[in-house]
From TrEMBL:
Domain (Phosphatidic acid phosphatase type 2/haloperoxidase) ranges: 108-212
UniProt KW Transmembrane keyword: yes
Protein name in UniProt: PAP2 superfamily protein
InterPro entries xref list: PAP2/HPO, PAP2/HPO_sf
Highest taxon in the source lineage: Bacteria
Keywords of the record: Membrane, Transmembrane, Transmembrane helix
Organism of origin: Luteimicrobium subarcticum
Chain ranges passing through the membrane: 27-47, 81-99, 106-124, 144-163, 170-191, 197-214, 235-259, 279-306
C-alpha cells in the first residue's frame, strides 16, 4: 500500500510593507510642534497685547467670583497636588514605565518633555513675554503660560508617551480629564486667565510632538502586521480620538459663542470693565472654562495621534494566517 504524498501548503504571497515612511511621520510631528509653538505667541498677542483681548480675559477672571465658594472646595485639592514633588514623582513614574518596557531612549524622552515644557513656561512667563497695562487699573503681572497647567499636562503627556500602544489611548483620555480639571481649577481660584491655561497646553503639546519627532529606535513599539502588511487598526485610539474631538467640538462651540457675546459687550466699554453687568462676566468665565476643556481635548488628541504614528517600527513581525 503506497503512502499518500504529503500535502504542502501553497506558497504565501509576499507581504508588502504599507507603513507610512519614517520621514513623513517625523515631518508630521515637526509640523504639529511648530503650529503649537506658534499658537502660544498668537494667544499672547490676541489676549495680552491687545486691549480687547485683555478685556475679555479680565472679564473671565472677574466672573470667577460668582459661585467661587462652592467650586473652590473641589478646585483647591486639585491644585494642591501640583508641586515640585509631583513633577519628580511624575517623571520617575513615566521613566519607570519606559524602562519596564525596555525602551531606554523613551525614558530620556519623557524626562526631556517634562523638564523642557516646564522650563519653557517659566522662561516665557518671566523673561520673554510681558503684560502691558492697557486697561484702567491694575490687572496683575503676566501669567501666560500657566505653570500649574504645564505641570499637570506635561506629566500626563509623559505617561501617554511611555505607555504601551494598547494602553496609550486610555492614558491619554485620563490625562486629558485630569489636565482639564487642573486648568479649570486655576480659573476658579482666579490664579490664571483662560489664555494662560490654553497657552500652557500648547507649550506641552509642542514639546510632546517635538520629542516624538526624534524618537530613537529603542523607543519604538513592536507592532504585529496583519496578513496584508498593514498595521492593525487601533480601535482604542480611534474611540479615544472620537471622544476627545467630540468633547472639543462641543466645548469649543460653547466657548466661541460666549466669546462672541462678550466681545459685543466690551466693544464700547473697554475702559470701564467694572461697569459691565454680572451676566457678561459669568458668560466670559463659563466660556473660558469651556475653551480650556476644548483645547485640552484637542491637544491630547494630537499628542496621542502623533505618538501612535511615530512609534511604529519598521522591524515589525508579520502575523501568519491559516
Amino acid at each position: 500500500m503506497n503512502a499518500s504524498p504529503p500535502v504542502t501548503a501553497p506558497p504565501r504571497p509576499p507581504v508588502r510593507d504599507r507603513l507610512v515612511p519614517d520621514g513623513v511621520r517625523r515631518a508630521v510631528a515637526v509640523v504639529c510642534a511648530v503650529l503649537l509653538a506658534v499658537s502660544v505667541f498668537v494667544l499672547w498677542w490676541a489676549f495680552v497685547d491687545t486691549i480687547r483681548g485683555q478685556g475679555v480675559d479680565e472679564l473671565a477672571r472677574r466672573g470667577a467670583t460668582y459661585g467661587q465658594g462652592q467650586l473652590w472646595q473641589v478646585a483647591s485639592p486639585v491644585l494642591d497636588v501640583v508641586s515640585v514633588s509631583f513633577v519628580a514623582v511624575g517623571i520617575a513614574t513615566a521613566m519607570a514605565v519606559a524602562l519596564l518596557r525596555r525602551r531606554w531612549g523613551l525614558a530620556v524622552q519623557v524626562a526631556v518633555l517634562v523638564a523642557g515644557a516646564n522650563l519653557t513656561t517659566e522662561v516665557l512667563k518671566h523673561v520673554v513675554l510681558d503684560r502691558p497695562h492697557l486697561l484702567a487699573g491694575w490687572t496683575g503681572e503676566n501669567g501666560l503660560p500657566s505653570g500649574h497647567t504645564t505641570v499637570a499636562a506635561s506629566v500626563s503627556a509623559a505617561l501617554v508617551l511611555a505607555s504601551s500602544r494598547r494602553v496609550r489611548p486610555f492614558v491619554a483620555l485620563a490625562g486629558a480629564c485630569y489636565t482639564a480639571l487642573t486648568g479649570v481649577s486655576t480659573l476658579v481660584g482666579q490664579w490664571h486667565r483662560p489664555s494662560d491655561v490654553v497657552a500652557a497646553l500648547c507649550v506641552v503639546g509642542a514639546w510632546s510632538c517635538a520629542v516624538c519627532a526624534v524618537t530613537p529606535r529603542s523607543s519604538l513599539d513592536v507592532v504585529e502586521l496583519d496578513g496584508t502588511g498593514r498595521v492593525p487598526r487601533a480601535v482604542g485610539s480611534y474611540v479615544t480620538a472620537v471622544v476627545l474631538l467630540g468633547a472639543a467640538g462641543l466645548a469649543g462651540a460653547v466657548a466661541l459663542g460666549a466669546l462672541h457675546d462678550v466681545l459685543e459687550a466690551v466693544e464700547d466699554m473697554l475702559g470701564a470693565l467694572w461697569a459691565i453687568r454680572r451676566s457678561v462676566q459669568v458668560t466670559a468665565y463659563i466660556g473660558g472654562a469651556f475653551g480650556v476643556v476644548a483645547t485640552t481635548c484637542l491637544v491630547f488628541t494630537v499628542i496621542l495621534a502623533v505618538r501612535q504614528l511615530t512609534a511604529v517600527s519598521r522591524r515589525t513581525s508579520r502575523r501568519t494566517t491559516g
